[in-house]
Amino acid sequence: MSIKLLRSSLTEVVQSLAAAGLNQGAAGNASARWDDGMLITATGARARTLEDKDHVAMSLTGVVRPGQRLPSSEWRFHAAIYQSRPEIHAVVHVHSPYATALACLRRDIPAFHYMVSMGGGDSIRCAPYATFGTEALSQSVMEALTGRRACLLANHGLVATGDSLTSAGELTLALEDLAHQYCVTLQCGEPVLLSPEEMDEVLERFKTYGQQPAE
User: Coil, strand or helix: which one is 30?
Assistant: First the structure.
């Protein structure tokens, strides 16, 4: 994909998530792998006034091309994800209401529903707290994402990944919906969790979910 199209796609994803109520003001950030680096939203960028030219092209070691705005303060965990996970081509971070509420409880989302497997495992882990924009947060995110496609950030929000901006955005929306369902469930009582064996079966079936032609 050309840099021009990638800039347009990044703007579209950021604005669509804000329109869905998953971010407010300048909260959150998003990026896409590009060339040997990444394209990431600028620090303080607001979805409502975001323009394609505002996104920052940079290396995975933090080198920003001249003449651009400063990148999101969270660029470190975006870069770490791309460096260690070659299958990931997009990262989305939001401060969505329900996922953030659970993150403020420092609570994983367990296997209360089989669709938790969308995150790549039998739970959506909550990464330990670290100050935003720090290397400590980057390390915390990487640990929580081990074998996963998404995680919560304690007292912070949600990170979701994908092989494209579209898939990362869709996963973000789906996980916020699951977080909402889990919050409602907790208001009713403690959910009955699926067993590891039941989740293993779901994860196996999800390997080909929606990918096979009809016979």
Answer: strand
